[in-house]
């Protein structure tokens, strides 16, 4: 879409959350699950993944309502993964985005089952799409979800000493845990439009962006404060990250290189408005 008007991430956040409130009301969920789910869903967050989905989809002339719906489904999964991530058997976190974690607010059993619901609802949402779109989205999403679970498993296994990872193992963990959902967010549109070459390019862009995002996040966890980040920083002291096997400079340079590769792919696809906005929020990504 040439000459596309830009939508900044802050402008989008307001629009998206208004739509998300409406979409939550349409979900056929009992209140005992909906209440904790809405608590975590609306407890902050920059809405980066839905923003990427929205911007990519506009280049492919996908109708706006569909873009909000896909973004909502992805943000449901992201929220569910954070609820599970914070539980005592995994990270045992007390705070997320400056608020009490879901299990601290509602109890472990409700947090666990709320997270479970968030892994299922997106499939129900995608099943309401047209036949080919529904199949493509659900197939891609199921691959994404499995990668995310595998990545979280590796992360905990590294931390508990069950596996002694090399640098390449840590990168595989990043690709599964963090990049998978960014791959979906970047590449869903050419997939449902059957543009295979662009699908592979944007999937690579999402993978590179996800790794760089995770490295920036690791750096932030070391050098940030609770007021800046809003979570328990001491929980990450045993995490196995690039910064445990590389210097700060090496890790930062690698993240910058991957981010720049993402920018190059977007430039080659002539996604100039989105590219420029992504460059502008790089510093924001580094402190989200």
Structure class: mainly alpha
Number of helices: 14
Major β-sheet profile = 2 strands, antiparallel
CATH class: Mainly Alpha
Number of strands: 2
- Termini separation comes to 29 Å
* Gross geometry: globular
Rounded to the nearest angstrom, the radius of gyration is: 18 Å
**How many separate domains make up the residues?**
1
Helix and strand pattern = HHHHEEHHHHHHHHHH
Return the CATH architecture.
Orthogonal Bundle
The CATH fourth-level homologous superfamily = Farnesyl Diphosphate Synthase
Q: What's the average pLDDT? A: 92
**Range of helix content:** over 70%
Give the key terms.
Farnesyl Diphosphate Synthase, globular, 1% strand, two-stranded antiparallel sheet, mainly alpha, 288 residues
Concise account of the structure shown:
This protein is mostly helical and 288 residues long. It is built from 14 helices and two strands. Strands 1-2 form a two-stranded antiparallel sheet.
Description:
It is a single chain. This protein is mainly α and 288 residues long. It has one domain: Farnesyl Diphosphate Synthase (Orthogonal Bundle), CATH 1.10.600. It is built from 14 helices and 2 strands. It has helices at residues 9-26, 31-41, 48-59, 64-85, 102-106, 108-126, 131-159, 167-192, 196-223, 226-229, 242-245, 248-268, 272-280, 282-285, and strands spanning 95-96, 99-100. Strands 1-2 form a two-stranded antiparallel sheet. β1 (95-96) and β2 (99-100) form a beta hairpin. α1 (9-26) crosses α4, α3 (48-59) packs antiparallel against α4 and α4 runs antiparallel to α6 (108-126). The longest helix is centred in the middle third of the chain and has 29 residues, at 131-159.
